[in-house]
Specification:
The chain folds into two domains: 67 residues, Arc Repressor Mutant, subunit A (Orthogonal Bundle), CATH 1.10.10; 140 residues, Four Helix Bundle (Hemerythrin (Met), subunit A). The chain is 74% helix and 6% strand. It is built from nine helices and five strands. The chain has a three-stranded antiparallel beta sheet with strand order 1-3-2. Strands 4-5 form a two-stranded antiparallel sheet. Strand 2 and strand 3 form a beta hairpin. Helix 4 packs across helix 6. It is globular, with a radius of gyration of 19 Å. The relative contact order is 0.14.
């Protein structure tokens, strides 16, 4: 039988995944007992998992009402992408100036190759996973553990909106080519060019997501 600690991890992972994939959409109310029954465990680990999700900024806890999935707002996305731009820009600069080694370059190339293949096959879930790994690896390879922690938290906070955009419009057709170009700058040690290029990509992505949110709910999806 799983331990209480492992049940907390299981509940946290499953509830978080449901939120990030919008199976538990913004505004959804989930009672502790309801979640415990679905996950086939007691309420205690579920409550602890919900508290962890609250710390992640994904839900709010309500007395005797379990958790409520927080809305996605234009303001949230604008602020998250503003910080992402800085965090990822610093990681890109550090990686380009190291410089990047052969093993790291190959890992990034593998991710972009997978993005290319998934676009051809129309497999959005594989594309999204490869895109995430590419950006995660850039931050990881920079060698700054604290940057990695901040980046992963911000990525999760913005993933719900990105998934909505993917569902509505599909993966960006030029995404793989843009990632190849960014990787080329990094491999050539052109730190300033790489940072500026990524800055423009992040700004464009934030604009698209904010427009989608505003079009759908006038600035909020939904409360």
């Amino acid at each position: 039988m799983p331990s209480s600690t492992s049940n907390v991890s299981i509940a946290y992972r499953k509830l978080k995944q449901a939120i990030l994939e919008n199976r538990l959409g913004p505004g959804t109310q989930v009672l502790e007992q309801e979640a415990a029954t679905q996950l086939e465990m007691s309420r205690t680990p579920v409550r602890e998992a919900m508290l962890m999700l609250q710390k992640d900024g994904l839900v709010e806890m309500r007395p005797r009402q379990g958790m409520r999935v927080l809305p996605i707002t234009v303001g949230d996305i604008s602020e998250i992408y503003e910080i992402l731009e800085v965090v990822e820009g610093l990681a890109i600069r550090k990686l380009a100036e190291k410089p990047i080694n052969e093993k790291e370059a190959r890992a990034l190339e593998d991710s972009v190759t997978l993005m290319d293949l998934s676009l051809e096959r129309g497999d959005l879930s594989v594309w999204a996973a490869a895109d995430k790994k590419f950006h995660e690896d850039i931050v990881k390879f920079s060698g700054n553990v604290h940057l990695e922690t901040v980046f992963l938290q911000l990525w999760d906070r913005s993933q719900r909106a990105r998934n909505m955009l993917l569902k509505a419009h599909g993966a960006p057709v030029n995404s793989a080519q843009e990632h190849w170009e960014l990787l080329k700058f990094i491999k050539e040690g052109k730190a300033a060019e790489a940072v500026e290029f990524q800055k423009s990509l992040r700004a464009e992505a934030a604009e698209q997501i904010c427009k989608m949110i505003f079009d759908v709910m006038g600035g909020m999806v939904p409360s």
